[in-house]
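Here is one chain, start to finish.
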Amino acid sequence: MPRAGLTADRVVAAAADLADEVGFENVSLSALARGFGVKDASLYSHVRNLQDLRTRVAFLAGGELVDRIAVAVEGRSGRDALAAFADAYRAYALAHPGRYAATQIRIDQSLVAASPALRRTADITYGLLRAYGLEEPDLTDAVRLLRSTFHGYCALESTGGFGAPRDVRRSWERVVDALHTALTHWPREAADG
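Its structure:
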């Protein structure tokens, strides 16, 4: 019988909080159980295993991230939308490092397809890029450019990887300007290419 007050949502939220404190890779069912003052076995009424827990944290964090991005880009277009998207992404990654790390794990595509939050992420991202006149296969390439740029920058910034004295925020703004220029002048590829 599940312990009173323990639910799948509470377990996943606690795991996300723990990920922000100790790092996503350090989240374990044992550490989580200790936090609740229960035996490890008590958690198996709410999650199947560690992989299930990590996937659920990834979905929780992905939903939080897309909610912030959606609010940020609402009513904006062009460079303003791109900057709002980028700033919301960066702010989330830096404020919630464990949750953000969860958003980077590989998830079974059948689970991704069933996730409203991840579909919403794709809709918002593709909508932003379609405003630049992009269609497939260029859309996929542009999504990969944004994701790798945002992720790489945030990963380096969060670990103190930028040692030059230049203000990191100012560099970020220049990166967004460069992305806007690249998207505006995107070299189009034919759909059958």
